Structure formats: C-alpha cells, structure tokens
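Lecture notes, part 5. Sequence design as translation. It can be helpful to think of inverse folding as translation between two languages: the language of shapes and the language of residues. The source text, in structure tokens, appears below.
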C-alpha cells in the first residue's frame, strides 16, 4: 500500500530548478543575440554592396550612350531603409559611388561608409 504522505515528484518546478533554467536561457541568449545582430548587419552590408555594383553597371551603360558618367539624379539611386546612396567626383573619366549607413545600420561601425569607383576600388577593404 502506498503512503499518502509520500512526496510526489514532477508535480511542479522548485525555485532552484526555475533559477537554473532562467540562467541557462540567459547564457544562450547572451551568446545568440550578438551573433544574430552581427549576421543581420552583414547581410544588409552585402545588399548595399550589390546595390553599388548595380549602380556601377548603370554608370557604365550611361557612359556608353553619353560621353560622361551620370549624376545621382540621372542614375536613379536605390532606395533603402539602411543606406543612403550617392554619386560624387563625377567627370568624363571617373566617379565614386557611396553607400552611407543610416538608422540601426550605423552600429556597423567599421563599415558606415562603403565606396566603389570606376576602377573597382572598394573601400574600406575589410567591408568588401
């Protein structure tokens, strides 16, 4: 016969078990969240790089029809929540395409401004 006073296990969580679970979840979160944020920043940066490369193709196409490179207005810069695009140093033989981080992307401190010019010079090099 079973005793009525016998303690039953697994009916609930003790405070110690709950504290251990919260600690484990906190450790996993402390590791996962920064990695996730870094991954998101890198993917947005790659999107900006692709936009700059597409702008370069449009610049070269424009130059085939005209004897100079296009301005930002003529080129039609992409619209993005995370970067502002511009064209500078425009002449008959050169230009510089720039993507400047905005909003939450400014936390990507090493790559706030990425550039590409007519000779495929990519700066800063660590961002490409």
């Amino acid at each position: 016969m079973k005793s009525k006073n016998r303690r039953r296990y697994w009916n609930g969580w003790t405070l110690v078990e709950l504290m251990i679970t919260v600690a484990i979840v906190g450790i996993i979160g402390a590791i996962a969240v920064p990695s996730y944020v870094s991954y998101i920043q890198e993917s947005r940066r790659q999107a900006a790089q692709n936009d700059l490369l597409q702008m370069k193709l449009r610049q070269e196409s424009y130059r085939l029809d005209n004897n100079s490179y296009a301005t930002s207005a003529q080129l039609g810069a992409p619209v993005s929540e995370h970067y502002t695009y511009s064209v500078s140093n425009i002449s008959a033989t050169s230009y510089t395409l720039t993507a400047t981080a905005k909003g939450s992307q400014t936390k990507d401190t090493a790559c706030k401004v990425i550039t590409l010019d007519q000779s495929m010079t990519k700066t800063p090099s660590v961002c490409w």
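The translated text above is only one of many valid answers, since several sequences can fold into similar shapes. The helical segments are 15-65, 72-75.
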